[in-house]
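Q: I'm writing a short explainer about Regulatory iron-sulfur-containing complex subunit RicT for a general audience and would like to include a description of its predicted shape. Could you first generate the structure from this sequence?
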Amino acid sequence: MNNNTCTGCDRGLCSAAVGRQDKQLNTYDWLADVPGNAESTDLVEVQFKNTRKGYYHNVNNLRLQKGDIVAVEANPGHDIGVVTLTGRLVHLQIKKANLKSADDIRRIYRIAKPVDMEKYHEAKAREHNTMIESRQIAKRLGLQMKIGDVEYQGDGNKAIFYYIADERVDFRQLIKDLAATFHVRIEMKQIGARQEAGRIGGTGPCGRELCCATWMKNFSSVSTNAARFQDISLNPQKLAGMCAKLKCCLNYEVDDYMEAGRKLPPKDAILQTQDCDFFLFKTDILAGLCTYSSDKNLAVNLETITAERAKEVIAMNRQGEKPLSLQEDDRAKEAKKPIDLLADADLSRFDKSKRKKKGGQKSHKPKADNRPAQTNQQGNSPRQDAPQGEAPRNGNQQKRRNKPNRTNKPNRTNGPKGEAQQQPQQGAKPQQPNGKPQQTANQQQPAKAQQGAKPQQGANPQPSKPQGQPTPKENA
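A: Of course. Here's the predicted structure. Afterward I'll give you a sentence or two in plain language.
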């Protein structure tokens, strides 16, 4: 038994037994549930290999359903096809097919028998080898054409050669050579690049199988106006499909864009405000938004408003009025203004510290502590910039650290090391060796710095001044 033969139905045959190579869907019959739809007319739509269809009369009043395999009239002999549509919708399909005369509508003989199916499979098995050999014959004759596909009739008495050519081709000699080689009746049919892509199949730039190879039956003309209505860039590389023609999907949404475009204001309209004039920069057709610029050729002071607001401004300009701005309300303008979350951020926080210590290690700067300094029991505040692991220093230790070294810098009030300090007499100014008046110890150093100082050896401690006794400066 043939692998394509179906035994699930009572007739033993179905559309899978034909072994067709197309995966295309058919016209959806939305009148199938209407009572008496199939009996309303005897016209039947029959599909053959790939996209080829024919329309026939059911003169024998056969009970045909979608998917039945039938033997139909051909010239010469008969052909095998699959019923794809019955009922009232066949009249609409005939109008789309543009049949020129009623002679193109032939009749259905019978439902296909097993003998018819055997001849059909034998004829289909020769199609590929016939196509390869016919291409070699056309190349040998030097014809500028490409044979894309070959289709044998159901009884094997006729072969249809589908070819593609840019110019007119004289293939009279080719027909003679093909008839002598294959011993069948030859029919040449020219197809376009769209039909070729539908027969070969492939994957489009959208990642899905080509529309012409899955569900499309009729090819409508596509122009660049469809791209203009949708504001698509007129780039030939992006607008062209696998067949090197304009994509058929450009016509899918063009009607919606045309309807939405009627609600937009005119493109040449100039919106006048009290500040300046605005020109149309770009539009979002489906969203109904218009972006205007204060410069006719550049994007300057862009303002995005709705189409209704643009029409209101145009109506105000016609009456001689000029609004303050294109926006309806200044508050709404501030609300729509985007918020920059990184406006006050410091970008230098990402930079790593490049300073290194003497030992070659990177310096770790302690973080600043903003907490209030805690005072110790003596009332002195500890040092805030003390490194980690070190106890904070009190006020006395800080003063000792800042106190100058006595061994390196001699004291002006003291004489040479080891000599006793002379106390100035009352009523006389102390004199230095150079003749200048000597400053007293109380005037030279602060009292807090002398509290922690130890008296030198051999020096007489200076007696404290009694209360009420005038200083030497006052006596002078």
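A: For your explainer, you could say: The chain has 14 helices and twelve strands.
Q: Perfect, that's easy to follow.
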